[in-house]
Each structure stands twice: as C-alpha cells, then as structure tokens.
C-alpha cells in the first residue's frame, strides 16, 4: 500500500506521515528532507541554492539517512525552497522516491508532488493543509523546541513566500491531486488528524 501525502510547509504532513506509517507498519519518507539535504550540502560548500549543476551532483550523492535536526533550520528551509524549484533537481530525485515507494509492503511518502507526480497511482492520497497563521505558529514552536530564538512574524512571512514559490513554480507545483482527500488540520491536534487520516485510508481499502 502506498499512501501519498501532499501539502504546504508546516501543515503537519510530516508528523502525520510518521504516525500513519507506524500505524500500518509501512516505511516513511519525508521527501522535504531530500531537498533540505541538498540545500544544506550547497550551503556547506559555499554554493548558491540556484546552482543547478551543484544541486544535481549533491542529489546523486545523497544517502538514505539524514540528521533531521541539522536540516530543520530556518536557513536550510529557505534554501530548500529555492532548490526545490530547480527542474533538473526534481527530475534527479524522482527515481529515488519511486524506488522507495515500490519496495514491499509499501510506504507513506509526504511532500509537495507525491500524489500528482511521484506516485500518481497511490492507493490513498491526502492533501493536508492549515491556515498560514497556524502553520507559522507550529513552525515557530518547532524552532523554539530546538532552542532557537525565532520571531513568529518572520516565520509567517517565510510561509507566505514558500507557498508562493511552491504553487507557482513551473516544475511540479504544489497542488491537490484530483483524487486526493482534503484534510484541513487548522483546528486539529495530531491525534485527531491521525484519526481522520486513518478513516480515509480505511474507506479507501473497502472500495
């Protein structure tokens, strides 16, 4: 079984993906970490986030394990948003993601173009969202939990910028697949969101 989860930054799709994977005994891939890993590699090497050749080279050198704490910083997140708009990079990572999904017994994969491009034939598709203000609050809380000092207004501005880039880029823009189930988590905690997602999966399995 392949469960595809798409949605904007800080919508809760990553946490939901992990919980769904654990519930169904599936592997989980947060594809945002792939782009963050490429972005961090470029930053560490003193390269620009829009350096196509360097980004593709970094993608080809990716392993399968990531230091999430090192990747989930404001600087890496901003660079990842820029890196993810590079068509050549997205193409380079397609095979990695599809191969991951194809390994039995399946996987839960979350990102921006999973249900539309990476796994268009996924058994279940979810589009997870929340208001920009709620997403900014979640992301700011995440940074604070890591001991980082962050201004929530700055995070909100970044959320708006990332939404614009994600939805307007030419390569695999963020959009809800026609057959994806919309899950708005604005007023849902993770337990309620998980319960709602499981209900969607169970209904899909009965068809």
Tell me what the structure shows.
- With 207 residues, this protein is of the alpha/beta class.
- The chain has a single domain, classed as 3-Layer(aba) Sandwich (Rossmann fold), CATH 3.40.50.
- Helix content is 57%, strand content 12%.
- The chain is built from ten helices and five strands, in the order βαβαααααβαβααβα.
- The protein has helices at residues 13-24, 31-44, 52-60, 68-71, 74-83, 87-102, 114-118, 132-145, 152-168, 190-205, and strands at 2-6, 27-30, 107-111, 124-129, 181-184.
- It has a five-stranded parallel beta sheet with strand order 2-3-1-4-5, with helices on both faces.
- It is globular, with a radius of gyration of 16 Å.
- The mean pLDDT is 94.
Radius of gyration: 16 Å
Note poorly predicted spans: none
- Overall number of structural domains: 1
Counting DSSP E segments of at least 2 residues, the number of strands comes to 5
Placed side by side, the strands forming the largest sheet appear as: 2-3-1-4-5
**What's the CATH C level?**
Alpha Beta
- The portion of residues forming beta strands comes to 5-15%
Describe the sheet with the most strands.
5 strands, parallel
Distance between the termini: 14 Å
What share of residues is helical?
A: 55-70%
Instruction: Estimate the global geometry from the Cα principal axes.
Output: globular
The CATH homologous superfamily: P-loop containing nucleotide triphosphate hydrolases
């Amino acid at each position: 079984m392949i469960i595809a989860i798409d949605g904007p930054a800080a919508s809760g799709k990553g946490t939901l993906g992990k919980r769904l994977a654990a519930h169904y005994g599936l592997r989980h891939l947060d594809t945002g970490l792939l782009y963050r890993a490429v972005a961090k590699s470029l930053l560490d090497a003193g390269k620009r986030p829009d350096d196509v050749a360097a980004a593709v080279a970094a993608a080809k050198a990716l392993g399968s394990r990531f230091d999430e704490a090192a990747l989930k910083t404001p600087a890496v997140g901003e660079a990842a948003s820029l890196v993810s708009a590079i068509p050549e990079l997205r193409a380079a990572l397609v095979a990695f993601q599809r191969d991951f999904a194809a390994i039995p017994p399946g996987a839960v994969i979350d990102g921006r173009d999973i249900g539309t491009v990476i796994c268009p034939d996924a058994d279940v598709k979810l589009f997870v969202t929340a208001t920009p203000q709620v997403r900014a609050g979640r992301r700011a809380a995440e940074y604070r939990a890591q001991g980082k000092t962050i201004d929530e207004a700055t995070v909100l501005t970044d959320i708006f910028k990332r939404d614009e880039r994600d939805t307007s880029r030419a390569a695999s823009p963020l959009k809800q697949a026609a057959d994806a189930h919309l899950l708005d988590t604005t007023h849902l905690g993770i337990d309620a969101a998980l319960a709602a997602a499981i209900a969607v999966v169970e209904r899909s399995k009965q068809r």
